[in-house]
Amino acid sequence: MQFLISFTLNFLIFSSLLSSTYANFADEQRYNICTNAANYTNGSLYSRNINATLFSLTNASLTGFATTTIGLDPDTVFGLVQCRPDVAENDCRACINTASDEITQFCPNKKQAMIGYGNCSLRYSDFRFFSTATNDLIVYYRNTMNVNDSNLFDKQLVSLFQNLSVSAAANDTKFAVGAIGYSLFSDIYGMVQCSRDLPENGCLSCLQAIIGFIPQCCDKKQGARIFTMSCSLRFELYAFFQTSSPPISGMLSPPPPLPVSTDEPSSVPTSSSDGKFYYCILSS
Ligand SMILES: *[C@@H]1O[C@H](CO)[C@@H](O)[C@H](O)[C@H]1NC(C)=O
Ligand SMILES: *[C@@H]1O[C@H](CO)[C@@H](O)[C@H](O)[C@H]1NC(C)=O
Ligand SMILES: *[C@@H]1O[C@H](CO)[C@@H](O)[C@H](O)[C@H]1NC(C)=O
Ligand SMILES: *[C@@H]1O[C@H](CO)[C@@H](O)[C@H](O)[C@H]1NC(C)=O
Ligand SMILES: *[C@@H]1O[C@H](CO)[C@@H](O)[C@H](O)[C@H]1NC(C)=O
Ligand SMILES: *[C@@H]1O[C@H](CO)[C@@H](O)[C@H](O)[C@H]1NC(C)=O
Ligand SMILES: *[C@@H]1O[C@H](CO)[C@@H](O)[C@H](O)[C@H]1NC(C)=O
Ligand SMILES: *[C@@H]1O[C@H](CO)[C@@H](O)[C@H](O)[C@H]1NC(C)=O
């Protein structure tokens, strides 16, 4: 089952996402963030500048990160694409091609739009957003399954994300993954990423904001993904990233002492619960 909850704040109204859009797990690999702050009409100069922006960004995508500025004021379009740094070049390119095809479909007639997938994201806007975090809209998915020991889980999760956010912010890739012990059977795996144009403090404060949002959206949940236009995080009780592929930073700590459980001691959490996510978009 999917749930869509929309909260609106002043002039910010969010894309009317149909819950059926998110009816299966494959679709949940995609998120989009659109604002109603400014609209354009089809065929306008702004829409032609969007096309040119998409063409330029797709063309530039081989490096895994690119920005572009197209057109003259007041129809200037500022664009940015980024791939996860551990994604292969051809997968990056394929992802950005998809983003370029789909962004106007998911954010039709919006001057400020972003679409993202597991491997890449694409954003354009009518203002120069480069190097500044845009954090006012938050999108999240969360696993419906609860953890057994939420006190320990929260403690380990906070510790993991504090570590990862400091590492990511300090790194040019603005990306970090890692894991921390939770129980005998499972570690907590985490990933954080900022838009690569952000300075260290901008990345760090963006990540701190969404880490601080976890108790509001995803308390006691076994997994969640949280996105703003400028940064994102994910955690799960299973490895959802390739631990071997560089560049990866983070840690793997030994599990803390486990309270002895007599129930089904051999059962191991599986990743199948990942299919149950709520999708929400709201303002922070
Ligand atoms: C943009 O369009 C939406 C409807 O799609 C409307 O609600 C909103 O007020 C418009 N924004 C502006 C700034 O006109
Ligand atoms: C503009 O074109 C897009 C597709 O490119 C379409 O989804 C949208 O509905 C059109 N908007 C209007 C107002 O016709
Ligand atoms: C922009 O590109 C889309 C898809 O390629 C096309 O349908 C549309 O007509 C183009 N718009 C302009 C103004 O060139
Ligand atoms: C596409 O990329 C090539 C090689 O990087 C570059 O020379 C060319 O100017 C680019 N074209 C556009 C439209 O950005
Ligand atoms: C994302 O990139 C990874 C690593 O390059 C690749 O294995 C995976 O197939 C890509 N995912 C999609 C949906 O293309
Ligand atoms: C993150 O954890 C690793 C391994 O425990 C540690 O070496 C590193 O110093 C920590 N980084 C930060 C920023 O806390
Ligand atoms: C950034 O991350 C890469 C890949 O993990 C690593 O090789 C590099 O040392 C890191 N740089 C810094 C400044 O931490
Ligand atoms: C929760 O505890 C039960 C029973 O001890 C165990 O089977 C299950 O694997 C645990 N789940 C997690 C996510 O640790």
UniProtKB/TrEMBL annotation:
Q: Where is the Gnk2-homologous domain?
A: 28-129, 135-240
Q: Which UniProt keywords apply?
A: Repeat, Secreted, Signal
Which residue ranges run through the membrane?
A: none
Cell compartment(s), UniProt: Secreted
Check the record and name the CDD domains matching this protein. Gnk2-like
For the region Disordered, give the residue spans.
252-273
Q: Which residues form the signal peptide?
A: 1-23
What the record says about family reads: Belongs to the cysteine-rich repeat secretory protein family.
Query: This protein is called what?
Result: Cysteine-rich repeat secretory protein 38
Organism in which the protein naturally occurs? Gossypium hirsutum
